[in-house]
Amino acid sequence: MDPNLLAEMHGEKWRELADLAKRNRLDPAQAQRFLDLYRAASKDLSQIMTVAPDSLEAARLSAIVHRARNHLSSVPAGGLSGIARYFAIALPLSIYRLRWDFVVIALAFLAASVLAGVWAGTHPEVLDTFGDYEYRRQFAEQDFVEYYKENPNGFFAIGVWTNNAWIAVQFVLLGVTGVFVLQGLFLNAVNVGFSGAMMFEFDRGADFFLYILPHGIPEISCILLAAAAGLRLFFAWVIPGPQLRRTKLAREARSLLVVAGGLVIMLFLSGLIEGFVTPNPLPPALKIAIGVAYTAAIVVYAGTLGRRAARAGLSADLEDHEAGYAIVATDR
């Protein structure tokens, strides 16, 4: 390859790489562009050094590549840069990738809950399996509401947070089995439906929605998001595509474990709502609005930053030099 011809063909990209290498900060799109230009320029330099190592073009491009390499391998700004990348790119991008999985699972969960509630409410023998008439009456008229008030707010909030966080992490980690997530979702949907049926049996339907919606909207959303991540892992090894099963599973696992960590934080805030807002004598509309607003904030966060990262071609996975290079599966 003639060095002068190569410089004429790719000179504009070399100048762009040199310009980006001088900047102290790059946005996600610029960072990806910088990496692509660096890789291309390194290949160009290798070609030039093969045919004309003493040429002016070789010296010029060598200086640009060297400056870019120093920029790439410089010491990070510190631990805060990793935290910033986690919350600005990795977490919202991972949630954004699960948006359609979440919608399908949420609709299925809602349908199962409603069907379970209607079935139990129209078949008294089903409700009898939960306990006799007196037991159900006490549950509807006293126990359901007292559950949210019998313990100090802070203690109760921490308790529900640890329980829900543990469920979410299990859904993600054990989602690779497929069965664990589906069974857990089904049991939770049936439990919600049957609880609602017992409340409606004694004309306590208003209490059911009043005490379950403020925290339930963000809490159940987080649990369903964990289920979506877990099932994505399941399909990663069942239908790996052109990659080896272990490669596909490892890549998805590294990206989706980001979701597990984020859900722990989100469920903590949901636990605060359940501990301090749900039992609070605030107007019902205000309590529900708080839960809806928190859920909407999560959607806007993931939708805005996640879509931006996706359009920039970024990934929540580790870089190739950290995670190992993938092998395309040619024969199974």
**Percent of residues in beta strands:** under 5%
Number of domains: 2
Assembly type of the chains comes to single chain
Q: Distance between termini?
A: 39 Å
Shape verdict: elongated
Order of helices and strands: HHHHHHHHHHHHH
Transmembrane segments: 102-120, 165-188, 208-235, 256-273, 285-305
Protein name: Stage II sporulation protein M
Organism: Brevibacterium casei
Keywords: Membrane, Transmembrane, Transmembrane helix
Give the SSE map.
Blueprint: H1 3-21, H2 28-51, H3 56-73, H4 79-97, H5 99-122, H6 124-128, H7 133-146, H8 153-173, H9 179-201, H10 205-238, H11 245-277, H12 284-311, H13 320-323
Helix pairs in contact: 1-2, 1-3, 2-3, 4-11, 4-12, 5-9, 5-10, 7-9, 8-10, 8-11, 9-10, 10-11, 10-12, 11-12
Transmembrane segments: 102-120, 165-188, 208-235, 256-273, 285-305
InterPro entries: SpoIIM-like (IPR002798)
Organism: Brevibacterium casei
Please describe the structure with a list of short key phrases separated by commas or semicolons.
single chain, mainly alpha, 13 helices, elongated
